[in-house]
Amino acid sequence: MRVVCSLLHPDDLATVVARDYDLVVPVTARLLQRGFNDTYLVTDGTGARRVLRVYTHDKYWLRSDSDLLFELELLEHLAAAGIGVAQPSRRTTGELAGRLDAPEGNRFYALFDFAPGRPGSERPMTLDELRALGAQVARLHDAMDAFEPTRGRYHLDAAILLDMPLAAIDAHRAPDDPHYAEIEAVAGKLKILLAELDPDPAGYGPIHADIHDDNIYVTSAGEFVFFDFDHCGYGWRAYDLVSRYPQPQATPDDWQRWTAYIDSYEGLRPLSTDERRALPAFAACRALWDIGDWLQAAPRIGTRWRADRLCRHVLDRVRPRLADLGW
């Protein structure tokens, strides 16, 4: 019997952590959540908390351990630059990650600082908080400009943002769904737009790629801590902004909140005219990518969408962005 994704026992993982990291024993672990990775809360003998991530085997965007180490080295760089991130700990051997032999194959693991503060999704951010967040994302990108990686990493290009979700949607849709042809046509137009986009040199580089409120903590001092860089890679900096782009059926208040965020970002890192014009297109790409990303994980976590409704759901999320493009 083949195994798609095993669930490793927290007591055994606690033993591994106590062996591999310089922590005060006894060390305990408990499962926090399953998803694209398995995440555990680790507590040492002093009561200090950390987070253990056990990476899922065989992800479509991780080709080798080099890709994984790019993420962890980037986090070390950002922490050294004064950016609030959940920094990885090095093992006593000096390595940033370890490897476990699981039933489905090798699974890597890494230990991170516990992010202080409250989840950004706990309540809607105020306009002042959104302005502060926009400025901090600009500082994050500034710090990424100075990152000199020793490892390779994937690019969030048309192949990842458009071809991947198209293939995933095609594999999960009802065979006779008439709406799939429209999704293909939309993806084709978006691909042309991306090919024509020519940002200035600062407009493309390492990005977080998944900055949403569940991946941000806000401290009591109003500072931001970014975590879950699992999808980080090379991409358009403008794409990194559109996780906050107003959702379908957005209200005037939603647009005011977006304006506060994006204007604050541009106060430190102005976007080119092409980048600003492309923001709705990037929002459409993100909507497609997000669904494709979940569908890629379906063998491990299941799928939430019925096959006969999948394409309509995709179009409900993408069409409003096309209207913002004037299409």
What does this protein structure show overall?
The protein contains 9 helices and 10 strands. A hairpin with a 2-residue loop joins strand 1 and strand 2 (37-43). Helices cover 43% and strands 16% of the residues. The strands form 3 sheets. A 5-stranded antiparallel sheet has the order 1-2-3-5-4, with helices on both faces. The termini are far apart. The model has no long low-confidence stretch (mean pLDDT 95). Helix 3 runs parallel beside helix 6. It folds into 2 domains: 10-114, Phosphorylase Kinase, domain 1; 119-325, Alpha-Beta Complex (Aminoglycoside 3'-phosphotransferase, Chain: A, domain 2), CATH 3.90.1200. It is globular, with a radius of gyration of 20 Å. By secondary structure, the protein is an alpha+beta fold.
CATH architecture tag of the largest domain: Alpha-Beta Complex
Strands in their spatial order, largest beta sheet: 1-2-3-5-4
The helix/strand class is alpha+beta
Mean pLDDT: 95
Helix fraction, binned, reads 40-55%
Which percent band covers the strand fraction? 15-25%
Count the strands?
A: 10
Order of helices and strands: HEEEHEEEHHHEEEEHHHH
Radius of gyration: 20 Å
Count of individual helical segments:
9
Characteristic terms for this protein:
single chain; 327 residues; alpha+beta; Phosphorylase Kinase, domain 1; Aminoglycoside 3'-phosphotransferase, Chain: A, domain 2; 2 domains; three-stranded antiparallel sheet; 9 helices; 10 strands; 43% helix; globular
Write the layout of secondary structure elements.
Blueprint: H1 10-20, E1 28-34, E2 37-43, E3 49-55, H2 65-80, E4 98-102, E5 105-113, E6 118-119, H3 127-145, H4 158-172, H5 180-196, E7 204-207, E8 216-218, E9 224-226, E10 233-236, H6 252-268, H7 273-296, H8 298-301, H9 310-325
Antiparallel strand pairs: 1-2, 2-3, 3-5, 4-5, 6-8, 7-10, 8-9
